[in-house]
Amino acid sequence: MSQDNLIALSCSECKRINYHSKRNKKKVKEKVSLKKYCPWCGKHTLHKEAKLK
Question: Do 46 and 19 contact (CB within 8 A), yes or no?
């Protein structure tokens, strides 16, 4: 994955970054939010786009 298209997805409950994905930032302006499994919470939660550190 190219670094400029890379985004991090963090859990909305525990705030941990669990997944990395990509998006075309020129075409998709809004932030990505997906319902994914969080291994720290042990359930499916909403994961929102976060800043990469």
Answer: no
Q: Where are the domains of the chain?
A: 3-50
pLDDT digits 0-9 by tens, 6-41? 999 999 999 999 999 999 989 999 999 999 999 999
* CATH architecture of structural domain 3-50: Single Sheet (2.20)
Determine the pLDDT at residue 43: 96
CA-closest candidate to residue 40, choices 19, 14, 21: 14
SS3 at position 5: helix
Scanning the structure block, which residue is given the tokens 């909403």? 46
